[in-house]
């Protein structure tokens, strides 16, 4: 608001883009209704904190078992990837280095499987897929999509290995 007041009170030329941006921001602020946060999540966490230690341990164990049941079909390498992503803070150099080393491994392994593939149509599709398997540069941040991509590429590699013997 200060900038808008100053624009009308001064004769000095002002950037029109700045005026428009400020007006749009002000209008958005005035016209949008605030989103009320659902306090259910906070209530559950607060309630969980009041439980005794044995009950919290039991809850943790049940959650861990459900997690393991859901992801029991992952390969050892996929489990290792999940472990690295869970243990590392997002976008740390160690995590990025791990991601890029997995990408290098996948590139080499899929290239080897492409050579073993006899069906030309599948070969072409695999070559196109291998173009998407690229390392991250230094400025990129690692996101959940990168984790999903790694897991799916490993799934593809496992299927190729089974198909090629």
Structure description:
- With 165 residues, this protein is an all-alpha fold.
- The chain has 3 domains: 2-30, no CATH class; 39-70; 73-164, no CATH class.
- Helix content is 73%, strand content 0%.
- It has helices at residues 2-9, 16-31, 40-50, 53-70, 76-87, 93-116, 120-130, 144-164.
- The longest helix has 24 residues, at 93-116.
- The N and C termini lie far apart (69 Å).
- The mean pLDDT is 84.
| Morphology call | flat
Arithmetic mean of pLDDT: 84
Protein structure class: mainly alpha
Beta-strand segment tally: 0
Keywords:
mainly alpha, 3 domains, 8 helices
Could you give the topology of this structure?
Elements: H1 2-9, H2 16-31, H3 40-50, H4 53-70, H5 76-87, H6 93-116, H7 120-130, H8 144-164
Helix pairs in contact: 5-8, 6-7, 6-8
Explain briefly what this protein structure is:
Helix content is 73%, strand content 0%.
